[in-house]
Write a structure and sequence with these properties.
Bound molecules: adenosine-2'-5'-diphosphate
Structural class: alpha/beta
Number of helices: 9
Largest sheet: 7 strands, mixed
Order of helices and strands: EHEEEEHEHEHEHHEEHEHEEH
Helix content: 25-40%
Strand content: 15-25%
Strand order of the largest sheet: 3-4-2-1-5-6-7
Distance between the termini: 12 Å
Length: 340
């Protein structure tokens, strides 16, 4: 790691991802000179922990970024839309976890295991976008397969944890579960239906084409990160009553012939990937194993017997870590090492 140190701000420091961003900066020993914790006015005066100390939370304003080198944003799309340009104007590089800037042609969308070279485009707007959590783990698993076999089409269905919606949703699943088993009336606030003991085929808003925004994020972001607009992608995204860890059932059709053995060999050497695939001992990726670590776990690797060149995979990762905070801090590491 570089000898230089950086003044870092975390916008959304009281949220599920912001909190983990601070943990990741600490765990990965990012060279932080000073840490500024930003959130809404509601949280001003609260404290967050960093390296055994407490850091005062300040209200995020247009002037928050003077003298800051790097800002990690995870405070929602409208906050990023409004404040990221102010940060960039003050010479602060923004790594933004919202969907606000991801498809802007002047903003790189980066997964360090896949397209680290794209970071260099940060100079265009001073903003780098962190992809959607479901997209990140999918491209970490699929990029090595694409490079070797040429992916023609991806059919993905997700099983997404409530933490992806934020802290309120974590509490909602907890409270509803507790109230259900105590035969009490349950309250709904975050989701339109009960999430405890249920699945919702609805993540983010519905669009005119019948898909949700989350589903279309997976389509567009995958093509941008893999730098291949010819790949067909179709997604169905489902919220499930899991706290941490998104799972994905992925079907891939390739140009070249492909076998499960070859996929295991390719993924066995792939950065960020751990193959967990031994049905004879009931070993396969599960959210309870993915939570709290940074690997993208891949298993249930098998031939799609319905087409000549196809494979099925089950891919699981911690959506708050690799799907958000860790990926953002990895991008900051590339910036610090190579560009700043
Ligand atoms: P706050 O806690 O003050 O509401 P989560 O995804 O877990 O819900 O967290 C969202 C994060 O984004 C929180 O830190 C939240 O702060 C922050 N946030 C939400 N709206 C704003 C805003 N308008 N300005 C600054 N921070 C915001």
């Amino acid at each position: 790691m570089t000898e230089k140190t950086f003044s870092v701000a975390v916008a959304g420091a009281t949220g599920a991802v912001g909190d983990q961003m601070i943990r990741c900066l600490e765990e990965r020993q990012f060279p932080v000179k000073s840490l500024k914790a930003l959130a809404s006015k509601r949280s001003a005066g609260k404290r967050v922990r960093y390296k055994g100390e407490t850091v005062l939370v300040e209200e995020l304003t247009e002037d928050s970024f003077k003298g800051i080198d790097l800002a990690l944003f995870s405070a929602g799309g409208s906050t990023s839309t409004r404040f990221a340009p102010h940060a960039a104007k003050d010479g602060c590089i923004v790594i933004d976890n919202s969907s606000a800037w991801r498809m802007d042609p002047e903003v790189p969308l980066v997964v360090p295991e896949v397209n680290p070279h794209a970071v260099s485009d940060y100079t265009r707007k001073g903003i780098i976008a962190n992809p959607n959590c479901s997209t990140i783990q999918m491209v970490v698993a699929l990029n090595p397969i694409h490079r070797r076999f040429g992916i023609k089409r991806i059919v993905v269905s997700t099983y997404q944890a409530v933490s992806g919606t934020g802290k309120k949703a974590i509490h909602e699943l907890f409270d509803q579960t507790r109230d259900m088993i105590n035969f009490l009336d349950i309250k709904k606030d975050v989701y339109p239906h009960r999430i405890a003991f249920n699945c919702l085929p609805h993540i983010d808003a519905f669009l005119k084409n019948g898909y949700t925004k989350e589903e279309m994020k997976m389509v567009h972001e995958t093509r941008k990160i893999l730098e291949d607009t010819d790949i067909g992608v179709t997604a169905t995204t489902i919220r499930v009553p899991v706290f941490f860890g998104h799972s994905e059932s992925i079907n891939v059709e390739t140009d070249k012939p492909i076998t499960p053995e070859e996929v295991k060999a390719v993924l066995g050497k792939a950065p960020g990937v751990k193959v967990v695939d031994d049905p004879s001992t009931n070993r396969y990726p599960m959210p309870i194993d993915a939570a709290g670590q940074d690997w993208t776990l891949v298993g249930r690797i098998r031939k799609d017997e319905s087409i000549p060149n196809g494979i099925n995979l089950w891919v699981v990762a911690d959506n708050i870590r690799k799907g958000a905070a860790t990926n953002a801090v990895q991008i900051a590491e590339i910036l610090a090492e190579k560009y700043l």
